[in-house]
Amino acid sequence: MQSIRFDDGYKEFMINDDPNKVIRFDPADFGIIERFNNALKNIEKATETIKNDIDINPQGEPLSELEEAAEAVAKVNKLIKDQIDYIFDSPVSDMVFGNKSPLALVKGVPLFERFIMAAKEVIEKEVKKEMEASQKRIEKYTKQVK
Hints:
This protein has helices at 31-53, 67-88, 93-97, 111-145, and strands at residues 11-15, 18-25, 105-106, 109-110. α1 runs antiparallel to α2 (67-88). Strands 1-2 form a two-stranded antiparallel ribbon. A hairpin with a 2-residue loop joins β1 and β2 (18-25). The chain has one domain. Helix content is 58%, strand content 12%. The protein is elongated. With 146 residues, it is mostly helical.
């Protein structure tokens, strides 16, 4: 079978410098901004619900033994992982979190939030770099018209 080859903008990123934990996505995809905002709203809504209903320990697990609490945490964990995958338009959540709950707290901050903030920095840097490259390309042609 023949193949059409072109640079699709996808880049690979190690998670916490671990060569066994690599995710691949296009950090300069402008659609990622919309997906980011939508997903954050969905995650915020879900985590607020769970905060009001269940006490959670630093590992992101319910303190009570109630089956319904475990089910609620599992539901929110799945929602967060699904939304992370949605943001990156790729199944990255398993690589990022492994079997750990994305609700697990690290120095008081949920793990998913730490990942999102770190990824946001990468995305902002890459979008800025792509915009500058695009502007240079546009200027090359607009200078010819003047």
